[in-house]
């Protein structure tokens, strides 16, 4: 890919990284601020309360997916990406200044809830806008590689969050962290979002969006539910292929630290370090797997993930519970994330490749957000519910079952690697625009 392609990928990824830093530090610092907003009950009950608000953010993601997906299809990918980071900055600032229970009673929890609603709106549109942007901004034959930076940047955001947590754990006492130290990452997130806002104001629009004139979607229907309904088969496909992947991803990322601390009995510092090291390796795997999909196709990687997750989730989670120390926990975490890479590295481009340009952002955003609200956002809460009920192993089977459902979809879906993004949905017999002809020649060469 050329310098201009990499510049677009960098700007799109940098914003995504900050978005997901803010999104994930809520989960990773929940053990420190849960008692500040919900002082009654045992540790698991407090975490369930904060996890419930975490899940509420996911249920706003379909609204954000619809709203910002519409903006992305009608006003451009750049406009949607700029708006998402603005919302995220505001939500991080709200959490940073939210009053505790001792100051405002449950008023602090209400502020926390509003902030999570704003985050849900933002991330609901961010995923689709960045997935669409990265896929369209890449060179022909390199879409898998380019779109893999979706999860590189998402994971980098979490790595930064965990890295900051490790620094704070080693420089602050537990009392300070529980008292006010947990506010620091949200201040950092708000400042980072301001920087990204400036970068995105100067980013370039994708050529595919600017040049595609006739893709089968009427100008007035671009980014509308009417146009999406015309592609309802692809929309339902996005929900089904997301189901297994999002449950597995959130299990081995946002929930992993809590699981190692609460269930496996590892010290919080050790659990955080395991997650931090595993995620660094996970981020490095994404471009390798994305490039592999450009050579052999998307379906082989998706099928490998689903088979591995279906068969290995129960034994991996069972052994993690009895890992006992850093190295066994790290090895098992890496094995789990290696399996998940088959989904995360390419899911962005697979979804974008299903839809024509005029409905691509909304087509990715709304179905994906619905799937995340139903399965990703509730994963942590479901896991804690099983634990609180004394049947924690039931959650392992739940994750494996979701992967099995997605496996059926992967085995029956079409391959999307060689689809021309500018021709998806184009009426039969329509002339190929000059830019698309050049892309086709580049791809063939």
Automatic annotation (TrEMBL):
An example Gene Ontology CC term for this record: plasma membrane
GO molecular function, one term: symporter activity
InterPro entries in the record: H+-coupled_symporters, MFS_dom, MFS_sugar_transport-like, MFS_trans_sf, Sugar_transporter_CS
Ubl conjugation is among the record's keywords: no
TM stretches of this protein: 20-38, 50-68, 80-102, 180-199, 235-252, 272-289, 301-320, 326-346, 358-375, 395-413
Domain Major facilitator superfamily (MFS) profile: 8-418
Protein keywords: Cell membrane, Membrane, Symport, Transmembrane, Transmembrane helix, Transport
Pfam family, one: Sugar_tr
Membrane topology: Multi-pass membrane protein
Major location category of this protein: membrane
Subcellular location(s) of the protein: Cell membrane
Similarity field: Belongs to the major facilitator superfamily. Metabolite:H+ Symporter (MHS) family (TC 2.A.1.6) family.
Reported function: May be a proton symporter involved in the uptake of osmolytes such as proline and glycine betaine.
Protein's name according to its UniProt entry: Putative proline/betaine transporter
Source organism of the structure: Streptomyces filamentosus
